[in-house]
Write a structure and sequence with these properties.
506 residues, alpha/beta, 5-stranded mixed beta sheet, rod-shaped
Amino acid sequence: MSRQDFYYLQLAQQLLGHSSYELISMKADASELWFQSSHRKDKSIVRIVRRNFKSAVEQQKDVLYALQRAENLRKQRGKSTLTLNTIYFADFDPFYTEQSLESTPSPSKVNSYVEQLTAEKASAYEPLFERLGLILESADNFSSEEEAQRIEQWKHKIVLFVQKKQSEEQQIAGYGKPIFTYVFLALQILMFLFLEWKSSTQNTLTLIQYGAKYNPLIMEGEWWRFFTPIILHIGLLHLLMNSVALYYLGTLVERIYGSGRFVFIYIFAGFAGSLGSFIWNTSISAGASGAIFGCFGALLFLARTNPRFFFRTMGSSFIVIIVINLIFGFVAPNVDNAGHIGGLVGGFLAASIVSLPKQKKLYIQIPAFICTLLLVGSLLFYGYHERSVYQDEPYALSVAVTYLQQKQYEEAKDAIKLFVEKGTGNSNVYFVSANAEFYLENYKEAKQQLNQAVKYDSTFHEAYYNLALVNMKLNDIPAATQNIDKAIALEPQNEKYEKLKQEIGN
């Protein structure tokens, strides 16, 4: 043992126990340790090395290796620049020259500083400890036996610390088995096959029938449509993309969080995605995308609570993938980005509530639970009470027309029932609703709807024609004559109108 061992291990154990530094890498024999600053704005790494080099060339190679590794860390963490401070503790310095180290090439975005300490006096180490915010304990205050004992104690503490960290990381990476990931995969594949057998997964009416997110029906009380879209998909490509994403992301998240937590995160994120879509997207939507983005959100929570493990295993490239997916959602047509963002936020909040296994943090979990309740409650209140339902009207009207074409008259009524009850000023809504009532032989209701249609559009000749048909069904010939005359006045060349007038006259 030498004095360099004493000061090296003293520095190592103080850095390990200091809140301003975090261990990011270590050799098995503890001869090399890498620390990063725990402050976000501080982009520096401290590398301490206990080693005797045979020549300056050998040391130059080590410096170059450290620079390349630091550059990889910089890219992994998405930093614009990085400062690497390498401190060598050596028994002798015969082959080391400052010039040879300065000549070593350095990555342009990594600022490298090298320091070598070979002295045995405590005064040589005081500037280093002071610069790092540590307190130096001089070896001169101990006997040879006490000094050796301290060295063994520090080495033992360092090894135990690293073993504990490694054990925690192994537990994080392999806590659970991906059981429910496969369950959700099977459910969405089976539902896809079932919908294809019934009709088509690209058929809007089929999707609505089996639980797609459809705002008017949610407003009518079908709250389960916040959840059922998770296992529905629109077309084979949509299914394949989400299945592959779920296979890779879902298994990872379930292994990290465990099956119970994963189910909560996945379902809540799916709900949050549907909620976001309900508020900001008027079209129908389906798919596991919101829940899958929730897996992204859960991993972002991992990055917040366990940055060392996250960046070492996944890195900033993972965050880049999220950003690319969100940008793609904004620029690509027919992508429900509101659902993606809702799922991402929902997954992060759900992970904050359940936290990681064996990492109970009530000071995070309780505020996260309260914030989630307030956010969900506020969004639901806004969606049901403050948000204008009429923004859903154009899409709902197109759905109702499709139902009429398919001769599904009850469904056509239900598709726009909300807007009829709210008293919309859109004459087309009343016209379509009246058509459905007519085919269902609800002639009085059809008459009422058609009167509303011509009230809001007095030039609506098709509505007058249909009114005449309804009047005939109700044996009100004078009213039928009056309405067909109005239709002909507005559209005099229409042979169908002339034919109906003749029938009424006969």
